[in-house]
Write a structure and sequence with these properties.
The chain is mainly alpha-helical. About 55% of the residues lie in helices and about 0% in strands.
Length: about 240
């Protein structure tokens, strides 16, 4: 690689790191340092599968109905898939999610000799991601959520909110996929900050930097925003 290209790349990486550090500091001032209640890894996995393509309210309703109908994961594994589908209907895509959920439970049971993900505790982060993503319905984001919030790993999952913010704040180039964003920003997040950064980005994406009609006025990260829809780029501002 030519020296001028290496130099340009190093500048881009340095600027990206500075932007991410600024976002971490700014969002901690804005929202504080969040905490969470750790779930069992298998519980977290199922909740995250249910969360795909829906909002928190519908996800939680679907999960509560699932657990009310099937108190154990063994019950879910043995159940008629149509009954699972009916239980999780509020979470959306019930036909798809019920079958994927049961398939994942079957795979876990066969792989680990029981319905548990506790063996993941002894595996490295990337090994866990590689293993879990062999299953249909489990992507890098879902695996990262399990790592961060059930296995205490220093990982920042990239969901739809983080993906959107990463583009708007210029951390990545246009059209970069969510999975690629995960790997690109990972080296720039300081040790111990990744899960709380994810939660603050989630809050920022839900309340300020929303997909539609974001609240750009007085945005604490406006200086780094490159989104053409921002107030910084509107002709009437």
């Amino acid at each position: 690689m030519p020296l001028d290209t290496l130099y340009i790349n190093s500048i881009i990486e340095s600027e990206t790191k500075d932007k991410i550090l600024r976002a971490i500091h700014t969002l901690e001032k804005e929202f504080g340092i969040p905490t969470w209640k750790k779930k069992d890894p298998l519980d977290e996995l199922i909740v995250t599968i249910l969360s795909q393509n829906t909002n928190d309210r519908n996800r939680d309703k679907g999960y509560q109905r699932l657990r009310a109908s099937f108190p154990s994961w063994q019950d879910v594994l043995k159940a008629d898939v149509a009954l699972i589908e009916e239980a999780i209907r509020p979470a959306g895509l019930a036909v798809q999610k019920s079958r994927r959920m049961q398939g994942v439970l079957r795979w876990i049971n066969n792989t680990f000799g029981g319905l548990t993900l506790q063996p993941l505790k002894s595996m490295k982060d990337d090994e866990v991601i590689e293993l879990l993503t062999t299953q249909k319905g489990i992507g890098v984001k879902t695996a990262a959520v399990v790592l961060a919030f059930a296995l205490d790993r220093d990982i920042c999952p990239v969901d739809t909110h983080v993906h959107r913010i990463a583009h708007r704040l210029g951390w990545v180039s246009p059209k970069t996929t969510a999975e690629k964003v995960f790997y690109l920003i990972r080296p720039f997040i300081p040790n111990g900050k990744a899960p709380t950064f994810h939660l603050n980005l989630l809050e920022f994406g839900k309340t300020r930097c929303t997909a539609r009609n974001p609240h750009c006025n007085n945005c604490p990260l406006q200086q780094d925003c490159i989104w053409e829809g921002s107030v910084r780029f509107r002709a009437d501002v």
